[in-house]
Amino acid sequence: MKEKAVLAYSGGLDTSIMIPWLKEHYKCDVIAMCADLGQESELEGLKEKALKSGASKVFIEDLRSEFITDYIYPVLKAGAIYERAYLLGTSFARPLIAKRQVEIAQQEGATMLVHGATGKGTDQVRFELAYMGLDPSLKVIAPWKDALWTFRSREDLVTYAEVNNIPVGPPNAKKYSEDRNIWHISHEGEDLENPENEAPDDVFSISNTLLNAPNEPEYITIHFEEGIPTQLNNQKLTPLALMQSLNELGGKHAVGHVDIVENRLVGIKTRGVYETPGGTLLYAAHRHLESVVLDRDTLHFKDHLSTEYATLVYDGKWFTPLRYAMDQFVNVTQQFITGNVTLKLYKGNVVPAGIKANKSLYFKELSSFKDSDMYDQKDAKGFIQLFGLSVKMNGLLYQDKMNMKNRENNE
């Protein structure tokens, strides 16, 4: 009986080629699995294309809701941002794709898992660490790192497709290398490879440019329950509908454009342009709500953890004890993150326009310049004396040293 391999299939040139290539070199049946994470039109005709390429079976899995609730929301609650700007849209998509691959392999009796990530990126790590964490008994095949894979260019792949009658779609259908899901779309390659070049307007495909964004601001209100968004403009929506609505609103106002040179795990710097319209709105609203709810120590420690969480997710360590433990801490911090945040959207800007939290630590009588029963300004005198004692002692020591040096100079 032939062995079976489950391929993470996107329908692009690389993974289309991989179906007959795997059959030829590994003498196996190839099961194509595509995760619907919100790629929209990219999924059209995908099943037929995979079958024509030689797949024995095709799974098109609608994982959008699971993606939002089990992958986007934990990262949102953690406030994780990689290298100051990247909202991790590709990073936390890969573990879910890998998880479903493993489940299908177990269901179909497959012994091999295949991904199309290259040996220069971080996706290869994300896929393979997920496989290891979920079922290390399955063999992993990564064609771009395989000695049998002799292709070195797109032209080589196109030639192979033509010889083997593999449908790959129109040539150069996309100018940039892109990855899209319900959270974001990334753009890399071509003129973007030179960081001296400004990203051209035609790079943006799911959002307006600043110039084309409306000339009037728009106000929206997002409601959170324990750190999770549940309503938009007082209307309760499913996670999927909420995400779609926020993408539409953010895209309309050119919100969520990020142009970043980031450090890949393998040591390469790469330039990417991202569109994350709805995600940017959620991050802004969530951060504003936390600002009135979390105490100083918790907020500062969570900011530190957020950076570590982002690196962990970026590096593909999703199915690890450390992330599970971090989630426990984050969930405790989110117990009282319930309330409304109003945002003003205008020409790429997201401006806070009102916060109302059920358990707010903001007290007007304390924040006011006026005296109140809750705060006696005279208490601050003793507090500063104690708080600054070590600073004072260092100052005295420095003064003594300066006096001694002056005396030596005078002598």
Structure description:
- The protein has 411 residues and is α/β, with parallel strands linked by helices.
- 42% of the residues lie in helices and 19% in strands.
- It folds into three domains: 4-67 and 88-173, Rossmann fold, CATH 3.40.50; 178-294 and 337-362, Argininosuccinate synthetase, chain A, domain 2, CATH 3.90.1260.10; 373-410.
- It is built from 13 helices and 14 strands.
- The strands form three sheets. It has a five-stranded parallel beta sheet, sandwiched between helices. It has a five-stranded antiparallel beta sheet with strand order 10-9-8-13-14.
- The termini are far apart.
CATH topology of the largest domain: Rossmann fold
User: How many DSSP E strands?
Assistant: 14
Helix content: 40-55%
User: How would a crystallographer describe the biggest sheet?
Assistant: 5 strands, parallel
Please indicate the percent range of residues in DSSP E strands (runs of 2 or more). 15-25%
DSSP summary: helix tally = 13
Question: CATH H-level name of the largest domain... which superfamily?
Answer: HUPs
Instruction: Round the Cα radius of gyration to an integer and report it.
Output: 27 Å
Unreliable segments of 5+ consecutive residues: none
Provide the structure class.
alpha/beta
Supply the CATH architecture of the largest domain.
Answer: 3-Layer(aba) Sandwich
- Return the string of H and E elements: EHEHEHHEHEHEEEEEHEEHHHEEHHH
Give the N-terminus to C-terminus distance in angstroms.
Answer: 98 Å
Mean pLDDT: 94
> How do the strands of the widest beta sheet line up side by side?
3-2-1-4-5
CATH class of the largest domain: Alpha Beta
Could you say how many structural domains there are in total?
3
What overall form do the CA principal axes indicate? Answer: globular
